[in-house]
Design goal:
Layout (H helix, E strand, L loop, with lengths): L16 H18 L6 H6 L12 H9 L4 H22 L1 H14 L5 H12 L15 H33 L25 H6 L12
Helix pairs in contact: 1-4, 1-5, 4-5, 4-6
């Protein structure tokens, strides 16, 4: 029995690897039946694939047989989707089965199993799937990376916006010289409109030419 802080998983006994795979394969097959998606016996056998001693049959022979009939990428997409749909279904309908699912994933997470790759494939492409919310921290690295990248992107955007606003404010505070009227320099030396007037010349300007001012 596991003690996990009073969660519903406390009532779920630890699973062996074969038990975990049997449970997940059975749920996948049931989901395929509900969705009318073909899932052959060979495709279900491939879900047990691993390279360690827990493999129920020769892994190399199974892999050769599988690759001769199926495209690996298409198979992974189909089975990963069925796994995610099956998990979403049992979350709503069967809390006990949901706890069993989590325990099965925890069991497989301790080793190297193809079924875990199938489970992770669609979850990595869509971090908002329900399966990413309830996994162990070690199984949630992809979504954590997503949120970190998102936070960095938002922070970079905010810094750029602040810098842009500061640039606009600094530019507006400078005196503008573009709109100032251009006044060419004035040369007073040769200007015909300006004459130097002395007191004597100003005084003589009141008398007729040739006249002599009288004194009293």
């Amino acid at each position: 029995m596991f003690s996990r802080g009073g969660s519903s998983d406390d009532t779920i006994p630890a699973m062996k690897v074969r038990e975990a795979k049997d449970f997940l394969v059975a749920q996948t097959a049931e989901q395929a039946s509900l969705e009318a998606v073909p899932l052959s016996d060979l495709e279900k056998r491939m879900m047990y694939f691993t390279e360690n001693d827990e493999m129920p049959e020769d892994p190399l022979k199974l892999n050769d047989e599988f690759e001769a009939q199926f495209d690996s990428d298409e198979y992974e997409i189909k089975v990963s989707s069925l796994l995610q749909h099956a998990y979403a279904r049992i979350m709503k309908q069967n809390p006990l089965a949901c706890s069993q699912w989590k325990e099965a994933i925890r069991t497989l997470s301790k080793g190297d199993h193809y079924l875990l790759v199938l489970w992770e494939r669609e979850a990595q492409q869509n971090p908002f799937l329900p399966s990413t919310w309830d996994r162990e921290p070690s199984q949630n690295l992809s979504s954590l990376s997503f949120w970190k990248l998102l936070a960095i992107a938002i922070l970079a955007l905010v810094v750029l916006m602040i810098a842009f606003v500061a640039y606009l404010h600094y530019g507006d505070s400078k005196p503008s010289r573009r709109n100032a009227a251009y006044l060419p320099p004035i040369n007073f030396s040769n200007s015909p409109s300006l004459k130097i007037v002395t007191p004597n010349s100003f005084a003589f300007s009141y008398f007729d030419p040739g006249s002599v001012p009288t004194t009293t």
